[in-house]
Design goal:
With 247 residues, this protein is of the alpha+beta class. The protein contains six helices and twelve strands. Strands 10-1-2-11-12 form a five-stranded antiparallel sheet, covered by helices on one side. Strands 5-6-7-8-9 form a five-stranded antiparallel sheet. Strands 3-4 form a two-stranded antiparallel ribbon. Helix 4 packs across helix 5. It is globular and about 70 Å long.
């Protein structure tokens, strides 16, 4: 299992992913879930993946091969816009499905992958897409400025309360880290290290891409203070007055 979040903000985009995979308590490993394609001055595209690791890796590898071969296939480095780039990813998902789904089913394994693709290509605004196992996708909007994939339920409440298009990149990153901390605390299948990436609108280069491990001072502070402040606010709330409520 994994957890990833992508945010489409007025200032740009924020992406965060964990790196844990597991097939039972005795088989826990670390694999990166974020892939970046960058042509400075022209485009930055970021792909987050969740679901069956073999399926996700096959999709990413196929996309990488198409970039390297430049054989006329739609690829993430020649797509004219983000919609076409999302279509390229969807086509790669369907190709892997045609190749592997029947064999996976024979062994009782579901074809399971979900992806987030976001970035900016020169000539258009930043865009963000959520891509499903069937290769179809939806696009983020001002009403829905973020997408989650993987183990999303624990980290969703803070995003719903805080994130809107006017949120700054720094605040978006802070909120994403709190969302990730909530998920890590509630689900052992999500864990460090994390990949955090900022992209600033119209810069056409990655602004910041950092790996966050257990020794990261800022994330440790976030985890400690968020928990302490939640407990403080909870304790400050008045207890229910049942007598008044029944009068």
């Amino acid at each position: 299992m994994t957890y990833c979040v992508g945010m489409l903000l007025d200032q740009g985009l924020v992406f965060l992913s964990d790196s844990r995979t597991n097939a039972g308590v005795d088989h826990i490993n670390t694999f990166r879930k974020m892939t970046v394609w960058e042509k400075p001055g022209e485009r930055v595209l970021v792909l987050l993946t969740a679901g069956n690791l073999a399926v996700s890796q096959a999709v990413v590898n196929l996309l990488g091969e198409r970039v390297a071969d430049d054989d006329g296939h739609c690829s993430l480095v020649n797509a004219p816009n983000l919609f076409e780039a999302a279509t390229c990813v969807g086509e790669a998902v369907r190709e892997v499905h045609r190749r592997d789904a029947a064999a996976l089913k024979e062994f009782g394994v579901d074809f399971n992958t979900t992806l987030i693709l976001g970035g900016q290509i020169a000539g258009e605004v930043p865009r963000l897409f959520s891509i499903y196992a069937a290769g179809n996708f939806i696009e983020a909007s001002r009403d829905t400025p973020y997408f989650q994939i993987g183990e999303s339920k624990y980290g969703k409440p803070i995003l719903d309360r805080v994130i809107n298009p006017a949120t700054s990149l720094d605040e978006g990153a802070k909120c994403a880290l709190i969302s990730m901390d909530s998920t890590i605390r509630s689900n052992l299948s999500v864990g460090l290290p994390l990949d955090l990436l900022y992209y600033r609108r119209d810069e056409f280069r990655v602004a910041r891409h950092v790996s966050i491990g257990s020794d990261d001072a800022y994330f440790a502070m976030i985890r400690k203070r968020w928990g302490a402040e939640l407990r403080r606010v909870f304790q400050d709330l008045p207890n229910p007055d049942w007598q008044t409520a029944t009068d």
